[in-house]
């Protein structure tokens, strides 16, 4: 898309899917990687350079029939980035009953 920088993370092992985040070219931003053991498969994270400290921006897709292990990875990612200034957005499939499963309760506590 003209005038924007693309940050993406494709879904692994199957066709289609993944997440993509566009940030206007005039905004200085760079992709960051979170702790490898915790990193969610369908999330992309970047830092936007601001005057004092970076602003972390994350885009997350949480599939409706998520496994407990993947749910835990999302929780760990959110926990890690929420220690700093951040904006987290995406499709968390809140309507899915799985959000209320443990450890989904912990994710819900970040979102509400």
UniProtKB/TrEMBL annotation:
InterPro entries assigned to the protein according to its UniProt record, in alphabetical order: Endo/exonu/phosph_ase_sf (IPR036691)
Gene Ontology annotations of biological process type: cell adhesion involved in heart morphogenesis; larval heart development
Source organism, top-level taxon: Eukaryota
One GO term describing the cellular component: extracellular matrix
Record's protein name: Endonuclease/exonuclease/phosphatase domain-containing protein
